[in-house]
């Protein structure tokens, strides 16, 4: 069934230079939860504050009047000294776990809520246990190499258009090869502990690593690599002190330990939005810095990935992106 709103952005980026350097691999795809932005919010008369009240107190009172959901105030909330506007960010919590894409951002000045944005989960209270219907594999299945086209360029010259071979190489690097490697790894995965984040981290690296020989070694030596990786635990920020995150060392392809913690992701469906438990991963590589979400119940399924290093790297080289976008 076709949903009425756009929920998917699917994009991989690469850098291809004229001297035949390897394609720069960058996974970027994911679901967009329903969002809204209110510029003139209706404020209950009981929520009137003086100009000197702490903006965090104003934010808490507003959110509590707006939703019954649990939440915490994020550490990146701040006040702009030039405008006097406080930007307060809240993250939704469900059954003790944060909803990674469930956010409310409030703009507050002199005790008044000027505007707010909202992507809080409003759907069924029962989390989705089955595999999500949209993953890296299902994204790739929707497209062929003919779907690729340059974008985000002020002007595209004929000489800049990728050749058919470039497109085929791109698709092989981002879709064909990693999906085959993930299936190969799953056949040798004897670690079935759902609470072990190392499996999710290693499956993601098999999909994300740009070097075929490294990927092949990881896929065929999955269990051996798992055994060589170590996990320690630490607390999240004081606002989330009840939840721990894992620090995973020894993952080939990384330049620093991986951070992982459980979180819910919103999954839009034909019957409304549902929640799916995921591992939220922070993976720093030589040329990529990923925030990725991998299914908790099926760690071979990557639900979304953001490469925070992609934009600056690509623009600095003056090259183009390839994009796949779908209306679902």
Automatic annotation (TrEMBL):
Keywords: Hydrolase, Metal-binding, Metalloprotease, Protease, Zinc
Source organism superkingdom: Eukaryota
Span of domain FTP: 76-120
Pfam families reported for this sequence: FTP (PF07504)
A GO BP annotation: proteolysis
Molecular-function annotations in GO: metal ion binding; metallopeptidase activity
InterPro entries the UniProt entry points to: FTP_domain, Fungal_virulence_M36
Protein name listed in UniProt: FTP domain-containing protein
Organism: Rhizoctonia solani
